[in-house]
Write a structure and sequence with these properties.
Elements (H helix, E strand, L loop, with lengths): L17 E2 L15 H9 L12 E8 L6 H11 L3 E5 L1 H6 L1 H9 L3 E4 L12 H19 L6 E2 L5 E2 L1 H9 L3 E2 L17 H9 L6 E6 L3 H16 L3 E2 L2 H6 L3
Parallel strand pairs: 2-3, 2-8, 2-9, 3-4, 5-7
Antiparallel strand pairs: 1-6
Length: about 250
């Protein structure tokens, strides 16, 4: 399961299908998705970054299938006392139940990445609601987590209707401001590569997206967290992000 990263935001976001995109962070400055996208996300209580004057980072992970690295990621997060949100699909919920249970037990949140990973811009309202409800129900069955506030669209594909339906259903879309091509599990590039890709994009208010299928990410994560702490960054959960929107 992949989430696409585009460097430049599309010019029009109303009505038609869009792939999430932004101009990447440079020299610690926040990335920019453009005023049109910024206003659209604000309208539907959605976000991709926090405040620019606070050295806070929000860790998020997308889990489409288990590749043997999530346990190490959870170990690091626990040791470093870093909260995270894991956006899960139906496949992950039905195939990696013990890890899902551990996520909640360790104090992390489960987010909704849809049941079958479809293109949401092609779905009816009822189909969208079914995708979300199946994830929410299975998560509650496995973990007891009743509340599910955050969703992330498969492959970052969305339009105004998907944002609108999500808001009506009680969801906030969470996009991202730091990401790189890390979902090709069969093409490892090493922990240093993952570390460098993350660190060169970091900025105040960063919403970091990582895929747990990547051994590179698992191997780089502790060094990333420790070095960012040394640089004065704090790690908060998504509740903090939305409680502190400008």
């Amino acid at each position: 399961m992949v989430c696409l990263l585009f460097l430049v935001a599309p010019l029009s976001v109303f009505g038609e299908s869009q792939s999430w995109g932004f101009k990447r962070s440079v020299n610690g400055e926040q990335p920019n998705a453009g005023p049109e996208l910024d206003e659209l996300l604000k309208k539907y209580d959605s976000a991709y970054k926090g405040k620019s004057d606070k050295k806070v980072i929000y860790m998020t992970f997308d889990n489409g299938y288990e590749n043997g690295h999530t346990e190490k990621i959870l170990d690091v997060l626990k040791e470093e006392k870093v909260p995270a949100t894991f956006f899960l699909t139906g496949h992950y919920l039905t195939s990696a139940g013990p890890l899902v249970e551990r996520m909640v037990k360790d104090g992390h949140k489960i987010g909704n990445h849809s049941w079958g990973h479809p293109n949401f811009s092609t779905l009816t309202k009822d189909q969208m609601l079914e995708e979300w409800s199946k994830v929410k129900d299975k998560t509650e069955e496995l973990t007891g987590q009743k509340e599910m506030l955050y969703t992330r669209p498969p492959e970052g594909v969305f339009n105004e209707e998907t944002l609108k339906v999500a808001k009506e259903a009680g969801y906030k879309h969470v996009f991202w401001s730091v990401a790189f091509v890390d979902w090709h599990a069969d093409k490892p590039r090493g922990a240093d590569y993952a570390y460098d890709e993350i660190m060169k994009q970091i900025h105040p208010g960063a919403v970091v997206l990582l895929h747990t299928v990547s051994k590179d990410n698992a191997d780089a994560l502790q060094r990333v967290i420790q070095d960012l702490k040394k640089d004065g960054y704090e790690f908060k959960d998504l509740d903090h992000l939305f409680e502190n929107q400008a």
